[in-house]
TrEMBL record:
Gene3D superfamilies membership: 1.10.8.60, 3.40.50.2300, Homeodomain-like, P-loop containing nucleotide triphosphate hydrolases
Gene source species: hydrothermal vent metagenome
Gene Ontology biological process terms from the UniProt entry: phosphorelay signal transduction system; regulation of DNA-templated transcription
Protein name: Nitrogen regulation protein NR(I)
GO molecular function, one term: ATP binding
Lineage of the organism: unclassified sequences, metagenomes, ecological metagenomes
Domain Response regulatory: 3-117
InterPro entries per the UniProt record, alphabetical: AAA+_ATPase (IPR003593), AAA_lid_NorR (IPR058031), CheY-like_superfamily (IPR011006), Homeodomain-like_sf (IPR009057), HTH_Fis (IPR002197), P-loop_NTPase (IPR027417), Sig_transdc_resp-reg_receiver (IPR001789), Sigma_54_int (IPR002078)
Domain Sigma-54 factor interaction: 131-360
PANTHER family for the chain: PTS-DEPENDENT DIHYDROXYACETONE KINASE OPERON REGULATORY PROTEIN-RELATED, TRANSCRIPTIONAL REGULATORY PROTEIN
Length: 453
């Protein structure tokens, strides 16, 4: 039976939603207490997660980011108190695919289930293991993946933000002898140090405030399978030491315990940082670097494979046209030419975001240049493009997103790519800023000054 998770402090509305979901033959679990979130993991098997953004986890944990990390395969919907296009767009940027507005109606719930539980569109043209591309750099990458799948060696995937490093890790796992076991993914940059330790290594009851029950870590859950640690360059020195022990011995000790648990996992790591430079600067341990960098794999940027852009753009157009029930079937030649000419600093993720926005605002079956570039920067200072068929709220959202991205780029340039310094200057929480940079496909490492040769 298909299962869903409701995360909301409002018990009454949650029970109403539970009843509606169960009437559609959905098995439901509801969480009202932040402490219960520690039970949620990749083994939970939820196909759909419905979460209220007002729900705050222990120690101020961002629940949306946490759920995206521990149940990455589930479709994510936010529960909102009222209709607000700007708020919906904000949560979509953070990974929510759908929004459910209170008070609930059976029709709105049924419509949500119809979209959320339908097979993802576009899989038939998804290329090799979900990766689209026939350029030389991609065919070479696919050959590398096939070779790596035959071994159990540790792999370090290096590439800019938005190039699809998680797809490479998934392909290696699903082609390997471990494919019948779990692929456990964790984004190391999205979690605080204490929460990351708990997620990776597990904890015993009473190990820290809020640890009301024992919990196994990712290496235990992934035993026999593959553990993928994304943004490995963001982990602290203390976590690096504990991780090194697991890599060397396969032994894990939960927080608050001296009991050694033996595990057998294949490990894949990914980063957008220059870890060799971090080793020189003392930011990353040399012994750990050599352990994870057994087989380095470089994920090419989109600018290195511009011949793949037409296929990617058409794939995303079909995917989002189906998701939003829009009759968009064609990309205008001028729009495609513009797509190919762009620098795409945010790579495939940025291209996908642009196509998604274009599909939403398109007024006909054709995706035009104006749909893709509503506020193109021109020599006269940045004239806004055509707004035909666009509502006021949509126009404001488009223009704001363009200038918000430019602001973050200028901010990182001023701060030399230092996210903590940029957050202080912008008077934003570091995690919030990091999330916004990820949304826009902005890689802070591109703004860090390189040492003189």
């Amino acid at each position: 039976m298909t299962s869903a998770l409701i995360v909301d402090i409002d018990r009454r509305s949650s029970e109403t939603l539970r009843s509606m979901l169960e009437s559609a033959s959905i098995s439901v679990r509801a969480v009202y207490d932040p402490a219960e979130l520690t039970d949620i993991n990749t083994d939970s098997g939820f196909a759909l997660v419905l979460v209220s953004p007002s729900f705050v986890g222990t120690s101020g944990m961002d629940v949306l980011d946490y759920l995206r990390s521990v149940v990455p395969d589930a479709r994510l919907a936010v529960i909102l108190d009222s209709k607000d296009d700007g708020e919906e767009e904000n949560y979509r940027r953070r990974g929510a695919e759908f929004a459910l507005i209170k008070p609930f109606s059976q029709k709105s719930v049924d419509d949500l289930l119809k979209m959320a539980l339908a097979p993802k569109v576009g899989d038939e043209d998804a290329g090799f293991m979900g990766m689209i591309g026939k350029s030389p750099v991609m065919t070479s990458l696919f050959d590398t993946i096939r070779s790596l799948a035959e071994t159990d060696a540790s792999v370090l995937i290096h590439g800019q933000t938005g190039v699809g490093k998680e797809l490479i890790a998934s392909a290696i796992h699903h082609l390997s002898r471990r494919k019948q076991k779990k692929l456990v993914t964790i984004n190391c940059g999205a979690l605080s140090e204490s929460l990351l330790e708990s997620e990776l290594f597990g904890h015993e009851r009473g190990a820290f405030t809020g640890a009301f029950r024992a919990k196994a870590g990712k290496f235990e859950y992934g035993n026999g399978g593959t553990v993928f640690l994304d943004e490995i360059g963001e982990i602290s020195h203390d976590v690096q030491i504990r991780l090194l022990k697991v890599i060397e011995s396969g032994e894990v000790e939960r927080l608050g315990s001296n009991h050694v648990i033996k595990t057998d996992t294949r490990m894949i790591f990914a980063t957008n940082r220059d870890l060799a430079e971090d080793v020189k600067n003392g930011r990353f341990r040399k012994d750990l670097y050599y352990r994870i960098n057994v087989i380095p794999v470089r994920a090419p940027s989109l600018t290195e494979r511009k011949e793949d852009i037409p296929a990617l753009a058409e794939h995303f157009m079909r995917t989002y046209a189906a998701r939003y029930e829009r009759e968009v079937t064609i990309i205008a030649p001028s729009a495609m030419e513009w797509l190919i000419k762009q620098k795409w600093e945010g790579n495939v993720r940025e291209l996908e975001n642009v196509i998604e926005r274009g599909v939403v605002v398109a007024a006909s079956n054709t995706l035009t240049l104006e749909n893709l570039d509503p506020a193109s920067e021109r020599a006269d200072g940045g004239e806004v493009g055509s707004i035909s068929g666009v509502t006021y709220k949509e126009m404001v959202g488009q223009v704001m997103s363009v200038y918000e991205k430019r602001y973050f780029i200028r901010l990182l340039e001023d701060c030399g790519g230092n996210v903590s310094k940029a957050a202080r200057k912008a008077e934003l929480d570091r995690k919030t800023l990091y999330g916004r940079l990820t949304d826009y496909g902005i890689d802070p490492s591109l703004f860090r000054k390189k040492p003189n040769a």
